[in-house]
Design goal:
Elements: E1 5-6, H1 8-34, H2 37-65, E2 66-67, E3 73-74, H3 76-97, H4 104-127, E4 131-132, E5 136-137, H5 139-163, H6 169-193, E6 194-195, E7 201-202, E8 209-210, H7 213-267, H8 279-295, E9 299-307, H9 310-317, H10 319-336, E10 342-345, E11 350-357, H11 363-375, E12 377-380, E13 383-386, E14 389-396, H12 403-420, E15 425-427, H13 436-449, E16 455-464, E17 470-481, E18 485-487, H14 489-499, H15 502-522, E19 529-533, H16 544-554, E20 562-567, H17 568-573, H18 575-588, E21 591-597, H19 603-606, E22 614-617, H20 619-623, H21 630-644, E23 648-652, H22 657-666, E24 670-672, H23 682-689
Helix pairs in contact: 1-2, 1-3, 1-5, 1-6, 1-7, 2-3, 2-4, 2-6, 2-7, 3-4, 3-5, 4-5, 5-6, 7-21, 9-10, 10-11, 13-14, 15-16
Length: about 725
């Protein structure tokens, strides 16, 4: 048997080439994993080619390092087949490592297949010499080389998959050295298995590749380094381009968010159809006017008006024409308003004008000009229409000392003007309001009803958007008056506030909701939470914190499963005191939800001071959720803002399946609304919602609740 020896300079060179090829392969796995499909295929092919070239070069340089006492050549076709085996095995390895998962059942046969490919590369390369007599192989060393190839391949797959998200150069270098040593170890084990017979000659000398080993080793090394360098340079440039694009995209997103936030601020204060002030902005201006009247002695007039027979016009000509009519009315009122006046649209066809009364101002003349303007013919969508209006006026401080009272008195005056006929106006007088005797009787009835069967709580389901499971309930107040029938919760709340019953009623609601939640927890629904709305006066109660603590302790409830809902307007009435109380409640672990978020003028300025846990988007945003509309942009900004402040986002007022699907895709955490479920009594709630989950594609999510009355929050 012919004995050979090794050139250790070339052995070391083969090891360095193997390490560099492994580094390149790791970099290619990273590029494939982070690129889009078409680009990823390009990187996969480039990575397979460069890694195959590197492994084959290591093998070829290793063969050149083995010196035989006879001249040696290599058959070109077989050498190219050996190179092809290396490239194919490398491409397969990169493809397998770029998959989303790599379980053992996939990596083991993958390692066997890749190892056999590398072994095929080696032994094809040996056969390229076409020795006569043929080369033989020691069985033990031959099998060991195959096993080493499989082990090296298995290791490479595992390392590739584990390192594709790790960009630390030290770990990548260590992994490259490990893989390089493994591949080189397989090669030289295969070389140790090779047996060259005495008197053997190289058949590839005739027509094959002939060269001096040292010169060929230098040439192959340089070519391989060139290929690997080009691939790595392309990868580096792609990373820089990707980073630049990411910075540009982030900058654009930041700009879009700023624009959406600005638009959101305006949208929360403006009527989307007429761009007049909405009710929230009007309430703010009313509060300012009341304060100015009390402090500086200024007088302000509030004029409330609506359009006669607007419903008939809508029914006859359709909503599109009706909307155009509303815009036309808004334009006429703008022409009459002064620059410092506040002109608002508060409901369908109701407009409000708040104006400061200067010396010499005549309210009668102003009311007359408005009626004359709105009663003249207007052309809408090519149709001439003659309108009519009625107008009511209330003045502060003459008639009222609060914004709610001023508005109610102006509305009462408008209602009286309607009784007088079309195109009339009335200045408020005390007799226009409900008689004090009637108010007193109703207040007395409410005082007796608290704690009785007349007043009850119904519960509306709140579901998780992720899987449709019930997350908890929202408590809603009901008063079934024995003579007057069902009284809306809003009127009950206003009556309680005026009569000093707000604390008593609020404490009763808290106690009842906690008791109900405890009952559900004992029934096994321990992950359910309870949401309760706080009125503005409750936030002024110095005993609220103690009462919440007492309710939680008596009913043995985790604080995090009680969620107290407040509005932005509520907080801003006395921001400093309200924020202090709410933050104390939050410190207990109680959840704080900002209800109807996005409609208050100070939401973005004061939100960061409040340790809230939930952001509850009002129905007004949900109803404008149409593809391509500004509503989608605004809602996306709200959801991003909530998540950015580590708050769960609740979408309230969902009425259609399309709204639900879009809100789920936009990342809302919880869903609420008539589509999800109406408010029902506690026993009925458990019967309807406890045993099931609400699928986002379940069009019959209201099954069993279709005939129940709609919820009034």
């Amino acid at each position: 048997m012919v004995q050979g020896n090794y050139n250790f300079v070339l052995v070391a060179t083969s090891l360095l080439v193997a390490i560099l090829a492994s580094w390149t392969a790791l970099d290619m796995v990273d590029r494939v994993n982070k690129s889009r499909r078409n680009v990823a295929i390009g990187w996969l092919l480039a990575g397979g080619f460069s890694m195959g070239i590197g492994i084959w070069s290591m093998h070829f340089i290793g063969m050149l390092a083995f010196n035989l006492p006879i001249p040696v050549g290599y058959d070109l076709l077989i050498t190219l087949l050996s190179l092809s085996a290396a490239i194919a095995s490398s491409t397969f390895a990169l493809w397998l490592a770029s998959q989303s998962t790599l379980p053992n059942w996939r990596v083991l046969p993958g390692g066997v297949l890749m190892g056999c490919g590398i072994a095929a590369m080696h032994y094809l390369g040996m056969e390229a010499m076409q020795m006569r007599p043929a080369l033989s192989y020691d069985p033990l060393w031959f099998v060991l080389s195959i096993l080493l190839a499989i082990a090296a391949s298995w290791t490479a797959l595992r390392v590739f998959f584990a390192m594709r998200e790790n960009s630390r150069w030290s770990l990548r270098l260590a992994a490259s050295v490990l893989l390089g040593v493994a591949v080189v170890g397989m090669h030289y084990t295969g070389m140790a298995a090779t047996r060259v017979a005495e008197g053997a000659v190289c058949g590839a000398l005739r027509g094959g590749l002939q060269f001096k080993p040292g010169q060929m080793a230098v040439l192959v090394t340089l070519l391989t380094l060139g290929v690997l360098a080009i691939v790595l340079l392309m990868s580096m440039m792609d990373k820089r381009m990707e980073a630049r694009m990411l910075r540009m995209r982030n900058a654009m997103l930041s700009l879009s968010l700023e624009e959406a936030t600005s638009e959101l601020s305006q949208a929360g204060l403006r009527d989307p159809l007429t761009r007049l002030a909405n009710r929230h902005l009007l309430n703010t201006r009313l509060a300012d006017a009341i304060a100015a009247s009390a402090g500086a002695g200024q007088r302000h007039a509030l004029l409330v008006m609506d359009i006669d027979s607007f419903g008939n016009i809508n029914d006859a000509y359709g909503h599109r024409t009706g909307d155009q009519l509303l815009v036309a009315v808004a334009e006429r009122l703008r022409e009459l308003a002064r620059s410092n006046d506040t002109l608002a649209r508060t409901s369908g066809d109701e407009y409000v004008l708040l104006t400061r009364l200067e010396d010499g101002d005549d309210i009668e003349q102003l009311a007359g000009r408005i009626i004359d303007s709105l009663s003249s013919e207007v052309l809408v969508d090519g149709l001439p229409m003659t309108l009519g209006t009625n107008l009511g006026v209330a003045i502060t401080p003459d008639h009222a000392g609060s914004e709610e009272e001023l508005m109610s008195h102006a509305v009462a005056a408008m209602q009286q003007a309607k009784l007088d006929g079309r195109n009339k106006w009335q200045l408020y007088s005390a007799w226009m309001s409900q008689s004090s005797q009637e108010q007193f009787r109703l207040l007395a009835d409410l005082r007796q009803a608290i704690g009785s069967e007349q007043i009850s709580l119904h519960y509306q389901p709140k579901v998780r958007a992720l899987d449709g499971s019930i997350a908890g309930a929202v408590a809603l107040l009901r008063w079934d008056h024995p003579q007057l029938g069902s009284i809306p919760s809003e009127r009950v709340t206003r009556l309680a506030e005026r009569g000093g019953l707000c604390q008593q009623l609020g404490n009763w609601v808290l106690d009842q909701t906690c008791a109900q939640l405890q009952q559900w927890h004992r029934a096994g629904y321990r992950d359910w939470s309870m949401s309760v709305t706080l009125s503005p006066l409750q936030l002024q109660d110095p005993h609220l914190l103690a009462h919440v603590q007492d309710c939680l302790a008596r009913h043995q409830l985790p604080a995090r499963q009680l969620i107290l809902e407040i509005t932005e307007t509520t907080v801003m009435r006395d921001a400093q005191a309200a924020l202090a109380l709410l933050n104390s409640l939050s410190a207990l672990g109680v959840g704080i939800a900002i209800n109807d978020f996005g409609s208050g003028h100070a939401s973005l300025l004061n939100l960061k001071q409040l340790t809230a846990t939930e952001l509850k988007l009002g129905p007004s945003f949900i109803q404008e959720l149409e593809p391509g509309s500004n509503g989608v942009t605004i809602l996306a900004a709200l959801i991003a803002l909530g998540h950015g402040l580590d708050m769960a986002v609740v979408a309230n007022g969902i009425t259609t399946r399309e709204q639900r699907l879009r809100l789920e895709r936009m990342g809302c955490d919880y869903l609420l609304g008539h589509l999800i479920g109406v408010a029902v009594a506690p026993a009925r709630f458990e019967q309807l919602h406890a045993p099931r989950r609400l699928s986002s594609l379940d069009g019959d999510s209201m099954t069993g609740a279709r005939n129940l009355p709609p919820a009034t929050s």
